[in-house]
Amino acid sequence: MELSNLLKVDKATTTKAVQKLMKEDYILRERNHKDSRGWCLFPSDRAKDIYEYIIQEENKNIELCLTGLNSEERSTICKLLGKMSENISSEWHELKNYSAGNK
Q1: At 20, is the secondary structure helix, strand, or coil?
Q2: How far apart (Å, rounded) are the C-alpha atoms in residues 59 and 66?
């Protein structure tokens, strides 16, 4: 899947972020063997070394956000976030389809 579509950002933003991560030695890039126009991105050893820490910090932040909420409230939040994500996805695809048709 194309990274820009996955992240719901334009290609320029994706390119800039990937270049910065490559410069900082967090991403390795190789030509796509199935489509030589594209690239495959892989985490470097440096990225793999900090991955567990990042996940732990993210999980701590999620738990902090959910502190004091009962299971019904947590479930409601998950459903609402899911709907919000669908809304963003739908809008993103409409925008990309509109942009593609106006080139």
Answers
A1: helix
A2: 11
